[in-house]
Write a structure and sequence with these properties.
By secondary structure, this protein is an alpha+beta fold. Helices cover 42% and strands 21% of the residues. The chain has a five-stranded mixed beta sheet with strand order 6-8-9-11-10. It is flat and about 95 Å long.
């Protein structure tokens, strides 16, 4: 069994706590009187301080102690939450992250942040303090002379650490010191469970502690002492009179509510009641997905052998294996699916900082945070979304004075949303700014030689010019943008995820950028078809129906390239011509109707073989510029079938339809 490095455990937990702290601080920027947010930020700081000291991050513990002391004044109401305080608190949060990531390199930078923090707090209190914060006890009495002192309450705290707590870096002495900070304590230790010397395992904690503490702090303060090591430990907290006090929190740490110390906490039972989660390295999920992919390929081979055999038992086993492999595939893919809200939350800080730097008032609205995507897709989406959101604020939204002059609200809005659309997830970035300037884009494109001066382009096609490398309509280059080196990278990244970008805009009505992405990049259901001697896989989620190619269209000389599907004209592409197949045309060809978004196109094939589980394999770098295929898969007989890029084929079909329409109009004229 692999034992995690305690410092890695701290890094993971600290990252989550810092995210929680940042979210609370950003919320305080708009809800400064929300005491729950203040308490949430304070708890995160308190936990980071205690955990940092426990795991040897003394620089972190020291800096956070000063930060926490200042924020405690906010918590007690002696200092009001203000935009400057939130700004410097966010800078302090960033400094904590640097101290954790690179110990010993940034300690000196913290003093500048603390001076800014002291100045804001001292100015708000109008007390003249500037050099250092007073001790917590002195501060409490000085800051709140009129506060009614809560009556002391005596608590009996009994605890025993998990057996592996010492291995994970827990230090009982630090826990006892934190309890002493709450008030006068009497500490006793039970050694009954300590085995003979020759049987002692130096990595196992055998001791039990009982602490009687008198404090005016609530039960929550005692819970906070154990919040970081709550899992697997035994903890009993009760008043001296014997009445058990329930934990006021409903989070994970609250599972340490009073229990009988002689009955170890049943982690499995607690998980069954309230749900539980297990932290797993991403590499293990990738390895599991690879193994499932190999199993799917082996199952396809078994099914192929069963079809060619007369053995009924073999057919039964093959069908059962297919059912189990399909179920395992769905389960494994479900494990890899992550709510996109985990990505959306990162951009609140980006918007906050940009609005401050650009002196623009921005409301950042998100929707569809529960929409799930493959973790690989989410990881690779971060940078493109950062660039698109930055463009929306920098180039899209006007400054408040121009917005008011245009009859708009002074505060602009950027909306980030996600929604399932069939087999895809559509992620939209919408702003209510000035919109794209089509005339300026055309002029820049003509100047760069991308289009002819007399070329007729629809706005949709014209807007696609912004994705060309080096293309920019910005009148001046800023530290944020204007060099034309971002949108082409965004497009390449999205296309690398087998997705596509739609761009729409209205003059003075804002801009909408929609990213359409597949749910997963691992295993999909595919429809296997044959064109000539080659076999190809079409993602089944994109297939709407299959129809027979009309006889008058089979020979290809009728001049018609459209099908009438229940009153709607659908353009079709002959894959034989597209792939330059040299075999003779077969009779009774089929047309597979596929869709991407609102558009449809028919793909003419020689034979529809059937459905199959398709394990997606990336094409090599030598084939990276092949636009009609998004990947490849291994069939049951060991041969390779290419996976058709439906979005590209639909786009090609639309262009083909438009070209034919223009030719007909030209002939008619």
């Amino acid at each position: 069994m692999t034992v995690m490095d305690p410092r890695d455990v701290f890094h993971q937990e600290a990252r989550e706590l810092l995210d929680q702290l940042e979210e609370a601080l950003l919320d305080l920027g708009t809800s400064s009187d929300d005491r729950d947010l203040v308490d949430c930020a304070f708890r995160a700081l308190h936990t980071i301080k205690g955990s940092g000291a426990m795991f040897g991050f003394d620089e972190v513990a020291g800096f956070v102690h000063e930060f926490e002391t200042a924020f405690d004044r906010v918590r007690k109401g002696s200092v009001a939450v203000s935009p400057p305080l939130v700004q410097v608190a966010l800078a302090a949060k960033d400094h904590i992250a640097r101290l954790i990531a690179e110990p010993g390199l940034h300690a000196a930078d913290g003093e500048t942040i603390l001076k800014r923090l002291r100045a804001i707090v001292s100015s708000d209190e109008d007390s003249g303090r500037s050099d250092s914060f007073p001790p917590a006890d002195a501060q409490s009495s000085a800051a709140e002379p009129s506060r009614v002192q809560s009556p002391l309450q005596t608590w009996r705290v009994k605890f025993r650490l998990a057996e592996n707590a010492l291995v994970l870096g827990a230090n009982p002495v630090l826990l006892l010191n934190e309890l002493r900070e709450l008030g006068p304590c009497e500490v006793s230790v039970a050694v009954d469970a300590v085995p003979p010397l020759e049987s002692i395992d130096s990595e196992v904690c055998y001791l039990d502690w009982e602490v009687v503490v008198s404090t005016d702090r609530p039960r929550q303060a005692i819970d906070d002492v154990f919040i970081f090591i709550a899992d697997g430990m035994e903890l009993s907290v009760e008043t001296l009179a014997g009445t058990v006090a329930e934990s006021p929190r409903g989070d994970k740490a609250a599972t340490t509510k009073a229990v009988d110390v002689d009955k170890p906490r049943d982690s499995a039972g607690a998980g069954a009641k309230g749900g539980t989660s297990v932290r797993v390295a991403a590499e293990r999920l990738d390895e599991l997905m690879d193994r499932v992919g190999e199993l799917v390929i082996a199952q396809a081979r078994l099914s192929q052998l069963a079809v060619a055999s007369d053995d009924g038992n073999l057919k039964n086993v093959a069908e059962e294996m297919e059912r189990l492999a399909s179920s395992l595939r769905d389960t494994t893919m479900g494990i890899r699916m992550v709510p996109i809200g985990s990505l959306f939350g990162r951009f609140r800080r980006l918007v906050h900082d940009l609005s401050h730097d650009l002196d623009k008032e921005v409301d950042f609205v998100t929707a569809g945070e529960d929409t799930e995507l493959d973790k690989t897709v989410i990881e690779r989406l971060a940078d493109p979304l950062v660039h698109l959101i930055r463009n929306s604020i920098d180039h899209g939204l006007e400054v408040p004075s121009r917005r008011i002059a245009a009859g708009k609200a002074a505060r602009g809005q950027v909306r980030l949303s996600a929604v399932h659309t069939g087999s895809e997830v559509a992620i939209s970035i919408v702003d209510d700014g000035a919109g794209l300037d089509a005339d300026r884009i055309r002029a820049k494109a003509e100047e760069a030689g991308l289009i002819a001066p007399d070329a007729k382009l629809a706005d949709h096609d014209l807007f696609q010019m912004v994705f060309h490398p080096g293309f920019s309509t910005a009148k001046e280059i800023t530290a944020l943008s204007g060099r034309g080196v971002g949108m082409d990278v965004v497009k390449r990244t999205i296309e690398g995820l087998r997705g596509r970008i739609d761009l729409g805009s209205r003059p003075s009505g804002g801009t909408t950028v929609t990213l359409r992405l597949p749910l997963t990049l691992a295993i999909i259901e595919g429809m296997l078809v044959r064109v000539g001697q080659g076999r190809y896989s079409i993602p089944l989620s994109a297939v709407e129906e299959c129809v027979e190619l009309p006889r008058d269209a089979e020979a290809g000389n009728s001049g018609r390239n459209f099908l009438n599907i229940r009153g709607h004209l659908v353009p079709f592409l002959r894959l034989r011509e597209l792939f330059k197949t040299r075999t003779a045309i077969e009779p009774h060809q089929k047309v597979v109707i596929v869709s991407a978004g609102e558009s449809r196109v028919g793909l003419v094939v020689d034979q529809v073989i059937g459905n199959s589980q398709t394990v997606i394999k990336s094409l090599s770098k030598l084939h990276a510029d092949v636009e009609n295929f998004s990947g490849a898969t291994i069939l049951g007989d060991g041969t390779v079938a290419l996976i058709l890029d439906v979005a590209h084929l639909v786009s090609f079909g639309q262009e083909f339809e438009s070209r034919l329409r223009d030719e007909r109009i030209g002939r008619a004229a």
